[in-house]
Amino acid sequence: MNISGFSAQNNMADLRQSADIIDETHDADGIVYFGFCKPGTTGTDSETWTICRMTESDGITKWEWANGSAGFNLVWNDRLDYDYYFQNFRVVING
Fold first, then answer.
1. Helical (H) or strand (E) element with 15
2. Element spanning 33, H or E
3. Which mean pLDDT values do the consecutive 10-residue runs of the chain (95 residues) have?
4. Pairing mode, if any, of strands 31-37 and 47-57?
5. What does pTM read for this prediction?
């Protein structure tokens, strides 16, 4: 998968299928985290991730990216500690 940006045109099924890891433990709060890692990543504690947070509240869904970045330079284990920002990234699913 290549993350060059994100568009609302991508549907949830595609995003779920493309994510390398999904954290739904906060789903009761309306929050789901999607992690995408560089090829060759062997764990969740290396700076090889990009992380998207989906928040649903009152019928509104927000997609925000950790530190506003689609670069694979974040640690999945730290996903709760990042600031999340709207970005105009497009998730491109190859294959």
1. helix 12-18
2. strand 31-37
3. 50 79 88 94 95 90 88 95 81 53
4. antiparallel
5. 0.78
